[in-house]
Amino acid sequence: MIVVAAIVFALVLLTLIRYRRRDETYPHGRSKAPIAESLYALFLAVVAAALVTLTFRTEDRIDPVSGHPDVRIRVTAFEWQWRFDYPSGKFVLGTTRHEPTLVVPVRERVEIELTSRDVIHSFWIASERFKRDAFPNRVTRFDLLFDRIGTHLGRCAEFCGLRHTNMNFYVRVVPRAEFRRLTAAG
Question: Does the global pTM surpass 0.85?
């Protein structure tokens, strides 16, 4: 980013110095190099198309969802908290005094079904460098795989209202047996 910014600033500065007005004549409305300008515009369009294509290819490569996850967990965001629903029927609901904890098994593929009840929220686990938006009336599916046992802090990364900063949660990665025990209904 710094290199690109330096190149752009250098080109702008070079242009300002090279083409500064030295007398009182004003440029004409017509270009003296329509072919060069057309080629430049075509070049910019090709660069933009290439960047869009590469972006979609990268996102498709990163975002595939496994057809056979080990666990499916439904995550619902709402102003200003989280709800985690497990396959057993057990759920964890955050309150203003209690930040919820999402429990997941270590080294197993977890499919998250993310949605929002009200406005756009964002499911963000900074230590995993992972973020997905939660939209109202739409389910976003993605897979997570945690390699190590431990606890991660999660947050809403989308300004969603006045108490947005209170919208935290924890992700607790545990062995499979402990996951079954902690998420069992009853």
Answer: no
